[in-house]
Amino acid sequence: MTQADAQRELWDARYSHPNNYYGYRPNDFLVTAEVMLRRESRLLVLGDGEGRNGVWLAQKGHHVTTVDLSVVGVNKAKDLAIERNVSVDAHVGDLATWLDEPAAQGPWDGIVWIFLHLQPQLRQSVAQTLTERLAPQGKLIMEAYTPAQLTLGTGGPSDEQVLMTRERVLADWPGLDLDVRLTERRIFEGMGHQGLGSVLQVLGQRKKG
Ligand SMILES: C[S@@+](CC[C@H](N)C(=O)[O-])C[C@H]1O[C@@H](n2cnc3c(N)ncnc32)[C@H](O)[C@@H]1O
Fold first, then answer.
1. Which of 68, 74, 137, 167 lies 20 to 30 angstroms, CA to CA, from 7?
2. pTM for the whole structure
3. pLDDT in tens, 62-106
4. Domain CATH code at residue 20
């Protein structure tokens, strides 16, 4: 079994619960960061799981494309979009290959990356590819756990390599002006994230020229 197959099985199993694993409300940081997006932005939401963030962004009037490994998650995201009467272009795909698909080409006014923890090589190549597909002044909105999360036990992966640091985000996105904040905050998102979390919050904008 490949690493991607194992991940897919893990996320399909988590999302098979009748309730949404990360709840139904959008991520708090995304809600505060959304104000910097221009109206009706073309957004690519990576690893959108059961769709709480992508659907909320569509409710705000944006044109939303999402991708996730888990077919169970994406089906729940599509149901949530129908329930809330919005349109989301939701795809099942592995970021290792999906970025070659026509739907992934952009240009994008914004990339949304919430609690998506990828192996370093994939994370770097996704960042490099998507930097080129950001429209002028296109934005990056990211929140991810830091290595300090390993001692807190309130959610997130256990592999240090996939957690985010200031150095990693600066190295991944050299083509963006980045505002990087390391913080601890209380996170209550469904059954998946419960309690004090150590996170990196990133606002980025494609550099001019
Ligand atoms: C911690 S969950 C976060 C889900 C969602 N962003 C949220 O905040 O509710 C991480 C998600 O990333 C997805 N994922 C992990 N690796 C991926 C990959 N290589 N390609 C696409 N999605 C991936 C998983 O299927 C899972 O839904």
1. 167
2. 0.97
3. 999 999 999 999 999 999 999 999 999 999 999 999 999 999 999
4. 3.40.50.150
